Structures
1.
Amino acid sequence: MVTLHVNGKAQQVDVTPDTPLLWALRDVLGLTGTKFGCGIALCGACTVHLDGQPTRACITPVSAAAQRKITTVEGIGADRVGKAVQTAWVEVGVPQCGYCQAGQVMSATALLKQNPKPTDADIDAAMSGNICRCGTYTRIRAAIQRVAGQKGATQ
Amino acid sequence: MSASHDSTTSAPSHVRSDSSLLLANVSRRGFLAGVSAVGGLVLAVGFPAALRAADPPKYGRDGMPDGWIDNPLVFLAIGEDGTVTIVCHRSEMGQGVRTGMPMIVADELEADWKRVRVAQAPGDQKRFGNQDTDGSRSTRHFFEPMRRCGAAARAMLETAAATRWNVPVGEVEARNHEVVHRQSGRRLGYGALAKDAAKLPVPPRETLRLKDPSRFRYIGKGELKLVDGPDIVSGKAQYGIDTRLPGMLYAVIARPPVYGGKVVKYDASEALKVPGVVRVVEIEPSSPPAEFNPLGGVAVIGRNTWAAIKGRQALKIEWNDGANAAYDSTAFKATLEQASRKPGKVVRNDGDVDAAMASAARRLEAEYYIPHLAHATMEPPAATARIVNGKCEAWGCIQSPQAARDRIAKRLGMSADNVKVNVTLLGGGFGRKSKPDFMIEAAVLSKAMSGAPVKVTWTREDDLHNSYYHTVSIEHLEAGLDAGGKPVAWLHRTVAPTIMSTFNPEAKNEAPFELGMTAVNIPFVIPNVRIENPEATAHTRIGWFRSVSNIPHAFAVQSFVAELAAAAGRDHKDFLLELIGPARRIDPRTMGDTWNHGEDPERYPLDTGRMRRVVETAAREAGWGKTLPKGRGQGIAVVYSFVTYVAAVVEVAVSDKGELAIPRVDIAVDCGAQINPDRVRSQLQGACTMGVSLATKEEISYKAGRVEQDNYNAYEILRTDAAPREIRVHLIPGDFNAPLGGVGEPGVPPIAPALCNAIFAATGKRIRRLPIRDQLTKA
């Protein structure tokens, strides 16, 4: 048994300690918003926040996440920046299939919390770990800039 | 028309299967006239209906298996609280169909979009009409039937109100979710009228009053947000991989690494020791051809996905690789090249190419290579099935739920009536998920586990190793120019394993639907044209990939035109327009295109005026010919596919070291009227990005019969740092009463040639082999 603190709630998961956080979230806790894309931290679909840091859940064993504060896409709307990002995503019409967007939202939120006015190069650096096969990159960029340009959204 | 909420499905509430709330009583209405039941041909995807000599040809939606339905009782329900539920019977994979299709019904219904909810249809083509979400056809084929659905229901509500008020129906009018009596100003909401309206007969099709397009509320406006947007950004959206059922088990499968391979023997003893592994089950391979069948292999079933993955790692399997064990991409490229240098089956022949070549002032020749590609959908194939009381219910991210249903029934030896296929959201489709092999796997494993729910998840490695790949091809082109630089002869030999090989191992020539994708149907003003198709043998599963054979054909044709323009010393855009020639409507059959994307050649001729206009628009908007600094260049290409015209101007910046950047792309699209313009833009932007990705990075290659790429490190997908910085989409206005074109696919094919033409303009280097990868950085 491992205790995980997910979205402000302590929950026990009965998995082996090497089990990636991704599968504990999805298969045990039913938090399927965090997506599987590659299994080896290449695509960013599984991005969650561990103590506020964007982290790939597919290569993070539950044993390493046990003492940390885990935030998933299901919980990020409780954060002011996270909410602003979600709203911008809908307003700009970012998603196509939407499968990668949970990870994109988590990466973008982490970026904007650390850097409220990111440059184009900052966006490249923070978002290039997240693949979108539908090709929504130009709109993701526009949505991030929209949040950055909103008064009070990130401060 | 009141919705019955006594859902017949046994699905738990968190699984989206609310489609079953819709009227189960359709048959009592007897309103099924016009249903076009085309029997015989099972393979709907990309194929025209089989024509028998005695039958008049059927085109468009009439030619698709099970055709179309425009019965409002099938597609919509109104609750007494006024909630309107509209069924979407096509699969959502990012094209926006779950917003666009219901929006059409809602508009004609005069429904308030805020009170509309969308339900997803299960696989049932007899009830809903064709469900093969493929070929850029959903809006093209269903715009009119969906309009009629909404208009018929509106008429029923008006009749119900007029009857209630005892006034002539001509005095009432439906407006924004209520019916108004003009004289008295009385009004009744749709909820209050639903019960009465449902008792009325559905009005005959010919009596329906469709809205004048000037009165559309939603159609053509692009103001509605995606119905699934809020769920997507908050993690609530349900994809095929997200299904959860009580007592569900999780499976991954070790499939043959070589196409046609089989298990000789396996040892599961170590796998069974992995904590959480429940059972190991062998899946029988299906006899060739692969068709939509599972590949077979050894499945590991566990209490969670990770246990199954770990268990699979511990399996010891001996494979018999079979007939394709020697498949090698390097050797196969040479085989294709040899084939392309000899005559092949002639599929179009105008004039006398040989004589014209012999007397031409100049001759040019070029060969282009486009490798296998994988769809690499972000959501890998995933499906869940269970069997209860002799009935199978399955959930999956499937483009062809009707095929999944039929194949599951066949494999389990059940009647299709006992199989229900629920369609989740698709985390990308691009043609991969039009093949239900992965859904059949889930059903087979559920059966092996005595009907327990089993979810099958493909890992990324599985997806890249065992896909239905885009074909691999050599496109060999030759042209003769006269002394003035005008093309007088054109020879194109296209050599590529055909998709038909997946259904018939003897098939070695491209099918009409492949040749009709920019190989034969080129409308150039050249008197002597010959298109040939030498044979090629497939050694892997070949399948549809977004825009299909247009990718290799258009890359070659549109690159070669640029090469000819350069040889003639002409501006490429001017040269291209001259080749297209004056505005005229060409019957595709006169170019040897018997397919025409399944559409009526009379209603859908190739219109060179429209083709010219997208070229001119893209060029103008991009500032074609503007002075650019060193290392920068513009390239153009135009492609007619899925009865839509798309031209792209790509601007590149290539550094001294050969690093490629794409500051801007301008795309002009003429797909006829745009139902949801924002989604048209979004599809074109996405297609452009995918086009850049496949042109610059993507390649599936084989060694010893095995795919060499395991994951996204080797099969690279374009990331945001290398993506175009700006993609401007210019929509050509269209007429809502004229035939529509496709949108999902036609944006892909012009991108690779426009990009490579831009690289040539910037650097003088001509790319003839995709992907570009390090060809610019190497000397």
2.
Amino acid sequence: MKNFLRSNIAKHETVLLAVVITEWFYFNSVGAHFGSLDNTFDIVRHSVEIGLLALVMTPIILTGGIDLSVGSLLGLCAILFGKLWRDAHFSPMAAGICTLGIGAVAGGLNATLITWLRLPPLIVTLGTYSLFRGLAEAITHGVDTFTKFPDSFLFLGQERFLGMPAQAPIFILVAIFVWLLVHRTTFGRSFRVIGFSPEGARYAGIPVERRIAMVYVLAGIISALAAIIYTARLGQAKADAGTGYELYAITAVVLGGTSIFGGIGTVHGTLLGVAAIAILSNGLVHARQPREVAGMLTGLLLILALCSSVVPKLFARLRARRQTAAPIQAVKTS
Amino acid sequence: MSAPLLQLNSITKSFDAVRALKGVSFSLNAGEVHALLGENGAGKSTLIKVITGAHQSNTGTIEINGKTVEKLTPASAHKLGVAAIYQQPALFPDLSAAENIALGLEPPSALRGIDWSQRRAQARELLKRVGADIDPGTEVRELSMPQQQLVEIARSLGKGARILIMDEPTASLTQKEVELLFGVIRQLRKDGVGIIYISHRLEEIFAVADRVTVLRDGESVGTHPVSEIDKAKLIRLMVGREVAAIYPPSQSVPGAVVLALSKIGCAQSQVHDVSFEVRAGEVFGLAGLVGAGRTELARILFGITPADSGTIQLNGKTITIQSPQSAIDDGIGYVPEDRRRHGVILEMSVAANTTMSIHRRIFPGTWLRSGAERELAQKYIRDLAIKTFSDESHVNTLSGGNQQKVALARWLASGPKVLILDEPTQGVDVGAKSEIHKLIRNLAAQGLAVIMISSDLPEILGMSDRIGIMRAGTITSILDGKTADAGTVMAAALGQTRPATAL
């Protein structure tokens, strides 16, 4: 038990869990309806799309990469989904499946540019970030909005299923899938190896390009899924859907303890990161604080989280330096 | 005669436990070309770095122009007139020759205007001094390699360099360009500049140097005027240490040919026309100087830079190795030279490193099975006597020798037919070194074909059944491990003999 405590107490995820619980109890005590079931469901509904993006961002960051295009792709997919349903008269189901395919192709574009042309992921996805959003705006001329979706489709975003928000079971399935992928398969192992050392991975015979391609294609598919759920929740699809979501997703992943340099991180950490941000922004509304405070506090939380992981290492390095400094002195004086 | 330009007295330098320099003394006079010679790892680079201030010596004194220098830093070395020119010119390719020269000369000041005509005139004058027919306005990227070297020399002279270090300046030059460079060196000598000249080409040392100092294992084994020494004596000095008889004897009888290369080449890595065979149970040593193409050949065989000509046969079947994955599938393993960057993943556990190249075999259906993984890791921790707290410890908590054993375990676990070892005992302590040697012998006895690249001459001689000598990107001769001695191997690596065609 003592060992268990010692090995887990200092873990990032444990600290973050404590933060999430503290947040919940604090807002529950200051906000009138914060702890109600309705509000809890509200939090879930509002965080599913960003949560999905954060989930698939985790393996990408584990490989040492980044995907800035997921928010823009969400917008593009929402528009294309609306277009397929309204103008091409697809059923919502068929339109949804096509949209997932489009997401896969868009992710494949990122993957191709990154692995074939060996361009840095930051630059590639900065490019597709503008490209996807620009396409969405061009298709709608910036004004076209898709609405009046059938109730059977809106059920996905607004009704309850199995006693919870209808999008929650989908999110849970994706979370389980990504968790297993990252923590229980050789793919996840490969992502970490690549994140620690892409060259080392090559020398170990890991198909580096294929693995990297995989995480970006997966991000494309799940961004499309998030687009469908987003459209169902709001009942409309516009070109600006998901603006800025990529940054929320990255924030959640990093807050969850994933190293931006790759190799280190967990999917449950990411889930806690999503929860911490979602509870904070919802709770502040209940505590009658202005919206801007949420952004500030999220930033503060992120910086504190980063410090908490860096400071112990800093101390360790200082200690190591003091230890190695001593023998060198001895040599000089002898 | 006045005090020497540079005088080093009993310089020692240690890195962790390794003593790279053990009391080296060295002097350089004005108007002298002093050659520095030694095997790979003899301590030449370390000595140069002490002189340029990049490394601080642990003990010993440095005198420049007769004055003792307390603490030499790169900046103070510059001020005292020390300049170094390396194999690869360190110039800004997008700037003109004049700008590159000016960068070293003009005091840095953001607000000062630039006097372009003065810059050009000064560059033209310096370039003339080194006999270079180069327009100062030319961008450096458009200049040839020797022209770039001349620009570097001009820059050093402009900075008032009195001690010029040239580290293998002729490595990428043609014979004619070498002659031109020698002309410049002779001119500089006349002007009273002292030159430390490093080269593996013995002819050059006799052509241009006044004195030669040979380093071996971090010690100076003698300084001689070149007029009083010959090539044979130099080679003896370089290698002449007692080869400790600690190498386990070869017991295996080489069996069938496992790997056969025929005219293998790869333009990108400058390897060409490599042909040799390795038999089961044989240790095939690959000797040669740094840059001769040994690691490049290993990278070809492991599919990192695939061959673009020639054929590779494995057990009589022609194979193409397009990637490390295909090399592994064919039964080729590679323990790379740079252990920390390529051989292991330092931040991951011993167990994860052990199974890294056999994911498909040990984790069928892609699901990780930590039981099977730990069992395998435990087996290799036992078999190779890897000193680690547990199989879950990160590799960076292990000593260098044990890290190397983990790198080996990864490839043994893959059950290879051919194992390529690139400097398997570099940076490994003596105890682990002999364990690794025993291990290599055992593997060969089990019928593995081993290719061992090593710059450690006693290791090559002590371990190899046959020795392939690489020089300038190809195998120039293959010697019998029983009859070869340090002299013949070193002479062949330096290109001093006709290619002997023993099998």
